[in-house]
Structure formats: C-alpha cells, structure tokens
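Model it.
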Amino acid sequence: MSQISRDDVAHLARLARLALTDAELDGFAGQLDAILSHVSAIQAVDVTGVEATDNPLKDVNVTRSDTVVAGLSQGEALAAAPRAAENRFAVPQILGESQ
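Modeled.
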C-alpha cells in the first residue's frame, strides 16, 4: 500500500515552489514512499524496556586547559616581516586606497 501519492508529491512541490516534471513527480513519489515504508518499519519495532540514548559514547570534548604563555614582542614579530614601517607591518597598497 502506497503511503504517499503522486498528487501528494505535486502538492508538496507546489508548497515548496518547485517546478517538477511528470517524470520527477513519479520518481519522487516512489522514493518518498520507500522512505516512509522504512520509517514505518522502524516505528513498528517494540522498544519496551529499552532505555533511550542520545549518545552511546560517554566521552566529552577533550581539550587542554588554557594556560597563559608569553607571546612575541612587537620587535620580535616585526623582525620576521619582509617589510616594516613605523613599528607596523608594511604591506602593498590595495584597491587604490591612499595612505
């Protein structure tokens, strides 16, 4: 027994403002019916006494703790730059901007 008809798919397509061809309507009707059949089969499974789980793994996000470490001084950072001017990185002008 079909759970979704071609007319149902056409109605959904209109609601979603999708222009589907007749072949697409027929194809999607079959695909959606197969999906709904699988969902029905899963829903029919007796889960009495089975505890619900949202995640079977009990691990949590493992991260290192934040520790403050000394960074580069301005001079050390600029020492590695190809060009520096007025204690800043010097970069090529872009987009025709004036300085």
